Fold these 2 entries.
Entry 1:
Amino acid sequence: MTTTRGLEGVVAATTSISSIIDDTLTYVGYNIDDLAENASFEEVIYLLWHLKLPNKAELAELKQELADNMELPKEVIASFKTYPIQSVHPMAALRTAVSSLGLYDEEADVMEEAANYRKAIRLQAKMPALVAAFARVRKGLEPVAPRKDLGFAANFLYMLTGNEPEEIAVEAFNKALVLHADHELNASTFTARVCVATLSDVYSGVTAAIGALKGPLHGGANEQVMKMLTEIGSVENVDSYIHEKLANKEKIMGFGHRVYRQGDPRAKHLKAMSEKLTKLTGEPQYYEMSTKIEDIVTSEKHLPPNVDFYSASVYHSLGIDHDLFTPIFAVSRVSGWLAHILEQYSDNRLIRPRAEYTGPGMQTYVPIENR
Ligand SMILES: CC(=O)SCCNC(=O)CCNC(=O)[C@H](O)C(C)(C)COP(=O)(O)OP(=O)(O)OC[C@H]1O[C@@H](n2cnc3c(N)ncnc32)[C@H](O)[C@@H]1OP(=O)(O)O
Ligand SMILES: O=C([O-])CC(=O)C(=O)O
């Protein structure tokens, strides 16, 4: 047996959903650059779930299905008030809330293909409503009901603030959703696939995936990037802050990647958005600090920024609370998790690798009074 630390380079599944080859990311063969510039998030959801772009009627049907399923069970909203709401991280709240959604879905354990697709619609539709409702309830505000006339990106921003968002915010948020939707066999997607490969249900798979995304080495990095920018505070402080971290062998959040070597193709889109939005909001220092950090880390560590680096200043400019950055990642990535869950069910085999044992050799049981 050979052991590969962190499963680096191990090909553990086949998939038709997305690929990373020579640092190029594609969803079903469409380059991410093309999708980021042109596609709505709803089109991308359809693409990931049906492996083709929708025509007008198919897109209208999906949008209708999402709009019809956004409302949350009242029990789930009521349960927020039983959480330690002032201290709980919204990602932990989301993990718990998604799990509890399964309790109120009569089809939760129905394993037929059509029922699983219906659950995918429900989960995709309800995720933004959960994040927005939790964000409001913890501030003592009432949740805002979704509006059927708004698209996915606009609806999220509307449910979060209660105000119809500006076009520029909707465009930026839509692009961020498209960029985060899927990413081959990343840790959270792998987690979802491992979970449902036991023939467990969709809610369990997504709950497990949220748990994996939460960690700072994965989706949780975007919040940590903002924490770093806030700590640094000004462009003048970047140099000493980053050099001290590097000298202490600490990781700089938002840099490095297991698969990309030359760079993450999503980062340039977020970088451009960050430049534009931070100027518009009168906080260009967040973009300026970010580019200075990028200069140092790329030249000294040869590590390019990943998707989490510039998304931090983009979300900050959209007025989103910093601890909602990772839940927002989940609102997008659930589309990919669901695509992979459906793909896993369609040709399932239990995922069960081996471990190389490194503990003591054979031992003889010693009764407790003799130990
Ligand atoms: C959506 C996403 O999940 S994108 C990734 C988000 N995560 C982050 O941004 C967290 C910061 N980055 C990292 O921790 C890593 O680069 C990961 C987790 C993304 C990839 O990890 P791995 O492929 O396991 O690389 P690993 O952690 O082994 O790093 C290899 C070397 O590069 C260094 N390195 C990797 N990333 C960084 C970083 N961000 N800052 C400083 N050094 C780094 C490591 O210290 C290690 O150095 P060493 O060989 O001298 O010990
Ligand atoms: O693929 C990975 O390892 C992490 C990542 O960039 C993502 O999930 O978007």
Note: The chain has two domains: 15-215+323-346, 221-317.
Entry 2:
Amino acid sequence: MSNRTLGVIGGGAWGTALAQMLASDGREVLLWAFETPVVEEINRDHRNSPYLSGIDLNPAIRATGSLSELAGLPLLLVVTPAQHMRRVLVGLPEGPGDLVLCCKGIEEATGELMVDTARAAAPGRPLAVLSGPTFAHEVARGQPTAVTLACADEGQWDRIAPMVWRPAFRPYFSTDIIGAEIGGAVKNVLAIACGVVEGLGLGQNARAALIARGFAEMTRFGLACGAQAETLSGLSGLGDLVLTCSSVSSRNFSLGKALGEGRKAADVLADRATVAEGAFTAPVLQRVARARGVAMPIVDTVCALLAGDVAAGDAVAALLARPLTAE
Ligand SMILES: NC(=O)C1=CN([C@@H]2O[C@H](COP(=O)(O)OP(=O)(O)OC[C@H]3O[C@@H](n4cnc5c(N)ncnc54)[C@H](O)[C@@H]3O)[C@@H](O)[C@H]2O)C=CC1
Ligand SMILES: O=C(CO)COP(=O)(O)O
């Protein structure tokens, strides 16, 4: 391991794709994965077939199952599912390196954004957030995208941005950590709603209307939590919302599509090893929004659908029948 080695915590699709992106300029990357067979396959075959199939990984990526190996690295991208992040970070030894949070969600048990959970789980570590329109397979293939890299201050940006900027991966500076987190968490819930519209065959007008009204919900909630409007209309908010609400490549969108086709959420999720974060975020988002007095009717509808309280067609009819209001 050289002093240029970068670390990634989480060997799912996104952690592996980020490791591939980081390694593209010849850097060594140390990737922590939860499952031993994933560690072994990456080191032996340079593949991660359970989570990122069909991608030949850069041999400069080395996997490990031991968090202690990551202790001294200058930069660690944190890419676990949101609900597992606290437990994983508690196991990370102390160290000076920046933690860049790349998971998208709200912790169910506490209602906390990832940055608050990480502050408690890994005290003293400088924290930043990386979020934007980034399907893992596209990034792993080197297809271009841009992301919000929200940092505590310009000094942190100056430290981190050169380590993650690649020709096909372009970070934009922000200091709005809350806004960057809220965009990524809320868009997953809205993507489920857009998938339902697709599953019911309601057409592209309906989907565009839902994206726009969903963005209004994201903005109301974000502003109530202290986010900045420009962040919500940027890459980590609207940018990711448009991506995830438009493609069955999204696990959240495809979950919603299955709900629209009449399947039960529990059955769809039981068939998957991969995470659809919106299913975990929806109920806690609803709870936090209600506590703050923020109306989120689309999020409420997704919660009712996930709980099996209402049929998809009835849920859409109820949304359309709400009293008329100003835009
Ligand atoms: N896949 C994508 O395109 C993108 C994903 N993200 C976010 O990245 C985060 C991670 O998602 P993916 O990499 O897609 O995961 P994934 O759905 O590909 O894989 C699931 C991950 O969960 C891990 N896991 C399962 N049980 C665990 C446990 N008890 N403790 C720790 N880890 C456990 C598995 O090892 C695996 O890494 C999520 O918050 C997701 O929203 C963000 C941007 C893009
Ligand atoms: O966050 C993502 C793209 O930016 C991935 O979305 P899904 O988790 O819905 O697949």
Note: The CA atoms of residues 22 and 164 lie 6 Å apart.
